[in-house]
Design the sequence.
């Protein structure tokens, strides 16, 4: 129970469905005095008290479990390390993968519970053979199946999402008000929970020593300098501070972040187009394809609120690596290494991979650092 309206209603529905329910709030911050500011942040003291009030109304036991040490290692430290490596991580994916449906579920199973219930907007269905599948929620506008794409078959078997079939968030808020929950109109949290002020660059600057470097165009010409490459991400337009205008007068965007040479590569918006993505860390959400090495039709989604795009995917094996390769029907824009690509079959979540290789859809005459134009470059976003 995060202290929000969704988890409170999910807990109440689980009780009414006949389950024996215990409310658990995860203490993830090592600063117990932290207070929420509007819709920024979560897992604060205020959130814990909101969760307890909801549990009291429902009439279920309530506990606070301290997972702050594991959260720091698996989510916060991973976030810093990924940015330092020139990648753009998704901490919500890591939290679901390592904390809510791993550490929390493991402890719950050890204590004799059958499942973890959350307020995520997603659904679980059972196929003709009895296998459980993860699907999108009924309300696609609030669908959160993307951030659950990291769940494995075993985790799905021990998960419940009571809000999945709810037509809208407005209906959940109305139900919360009817139940007397004080969180009925509480704002949804957004941004990164451990950076509540939203200043990712400033937060990272306190943890990764900034080092000045060059800003280059795709041909390797120096356009300017940056104060530290760690906070740049592929697709970024603002904050480049390039004095020299582009020849066509159009704005430039970050195409690559190269931590080894400490350079940032920029170029026109058209150069953000990517025709192929791949990752060697991939998992299947439920039953895996029978022959994943054979190319299959699917849809791919690369951000939580992005539209799914028709694509072809397959597992490719060679002497050096085994990876999930995805070729969209049309080029994707602004794909950054470290992002997660979630693969769908209709409404079903089939699996995911962390993107570590992309292929540009726009050839260039020369690319610095020894790469060849239009070829796959591990860790490259252009």
Sequence:
């Amino acid at each position: 129970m995060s202290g929000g309206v969704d988890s409170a209603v999910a807990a109440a529905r689980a009780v009414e469905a006949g389950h024996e329910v215990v409310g658990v709030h995860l203490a993830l911050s090592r600063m117990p005095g932290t207070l929420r500011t509007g819709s920024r942040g979560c897992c604060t003291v205020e959130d814990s008290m909101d969760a307890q009030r909801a549990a009291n109304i429902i009439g279920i036991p309530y506990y606070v479990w301290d997972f702050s040490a594991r959260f720091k290692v698996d989510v916060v430290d991973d976030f810093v390390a990924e940015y330092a490596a020139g990648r753009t991580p998704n901490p919500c994916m890591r939290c679901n993968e390592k904390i809510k449906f791993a550490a929390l579920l493991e402890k719950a199973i050890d204590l004799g519970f059958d499942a973890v219930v959350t307020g995520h907007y997603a659904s679980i269905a059972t196929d003709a053979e009895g296998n459980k599948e993860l699907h999108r929620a009924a309300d696609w506008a609030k669908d959160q199946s993307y951030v659950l794409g990291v769940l494995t078959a075993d985790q799905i078997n021990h998960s419940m999402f009571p809000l999945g079939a709810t037509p809208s968030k407005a209906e959940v808020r109305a139900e919360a008000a009817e139940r007397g929950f004080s969180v009925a109109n509480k704002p949804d949290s957004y941004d990164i929970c451990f950076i509540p002020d939203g200043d990712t660059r400033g937060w990272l600057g306190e943890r990764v020593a900034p080092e000045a470097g060059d800003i280059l165009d795709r041909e390797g010409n120096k356009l300017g300098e940056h104060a530290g490459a760690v906070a740049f991400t592929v697709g970024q337009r603002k904050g480049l501070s390039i004095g020299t205008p582009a020849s066509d007068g159009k704005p430039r965007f970050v195409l690559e972040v190269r931590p080894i040479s400490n350079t940032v590569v920029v170029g026109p918006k058209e150069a953000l187009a990517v025709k192929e993505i791949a990752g060697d860390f991939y998992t299947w959400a439920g039953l895996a394809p029978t022959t994943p090495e054979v190319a299959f039709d699917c849809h791919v989604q690369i951000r939580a609120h992005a539209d799914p795009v028709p694509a072809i995917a397959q597992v490719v094996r060679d002497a050096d690596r085994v990876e999930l390769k995805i070729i969209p029907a049309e080029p994707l824009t602004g794909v950054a290494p470290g992002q997660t690509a979630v693969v769908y079959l209709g409404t079903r979540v089939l699996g995911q991979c962390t993107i570590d290789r992309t292929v540009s859809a726009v050839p260039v005459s020369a690319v610095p650092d020894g790469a060849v134009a239009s070829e796959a470059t591990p860790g490259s976003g252009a």
